[in-house]
Amino acid sequence: MREIQQIYHNNFGIAFYWKQNNQTILDKVQLVFKETGFYFTISELNMFCDLIEDSLIENNCCEACELKYSCHKFLLKTPCSSIDLAVNMTELKSIKDLVEGSLFKIELDEYVYGPGMN
């Protein structure tokens, strides 16, 4: 089994870097959730974050509903133009947390181990 370096995880999924020959491959992030895996560049991960936010705004119809986020499924666009995901609002919010948490940790690590180092 190949080694990984975890970036972020929640109850819905995980984001990590692959390791090869004891070196962490930092140019792409493996994102795994709901039996689905994406291997995104940081730019694509940022694009996915924007698409998630667009989807949240477009599908924000659950506030007054008594089923509250559990029934309605809709398509979530991804940076892969030929792939959309069928998700409900609860799943969308979990994916949002996973992606935003991963981006935050990546940016924090870049700062701490880059310009923030003394």
UniProtKB/TrEMBL annotation:
This is Uncharacterized protein. It comes from the Bacteria.
